[in-house]
Task: inverse folding
């Protein structure tokens, strides 16, 4: 399965996107490595994965939870921020968002592991 697919599709928020980032193309080892990268930078006590894309990352991050730190909301791809914003409203304003890929600029509370350049477009 490919990680990047050069085909137009409709995103979660309903917008047309020129290519797809399909994180199902990442192996379990890839996800574990992303989790280790995040865990080296943040201390957290709780992880909430956004269905469906954030669940694999949430499971991988679960082994790094401690009794201290913040609450994480995780997803695979950030495009408009709709899912992250809805999750933060439910979970609480102190939560930090983590995404593997950001297709567009993120608010300060969301940290992408990989940020696409603005010229790549959504």
Result:
């Amino acid at each position: 399965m490919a990680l990047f697919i050069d085909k137009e599709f409709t995103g979660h928020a309903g917008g047309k996107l020129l290519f797809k980032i399909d994180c199902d193309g990442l192996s379990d080892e890839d996800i574990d490595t992303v989790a280790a990268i995040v865990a080296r930078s943040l201390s957290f006590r709780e992880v909430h994965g956004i269905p469906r894309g954030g669940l694999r990352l949430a499971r991988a991050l679960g082994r790094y939870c401690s009794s201290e730190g913040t609450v994480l909301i995780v997803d695979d791809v950030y495009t408009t921020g709709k899912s992250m914003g809805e999750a933060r409203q439910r979970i609480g304003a102190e939560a930090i968002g983590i995404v593997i890929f950001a297709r567009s600029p993120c608010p300060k509370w969301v940290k992408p592991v990989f940020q696409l350049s603005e010229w790549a477009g959504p």
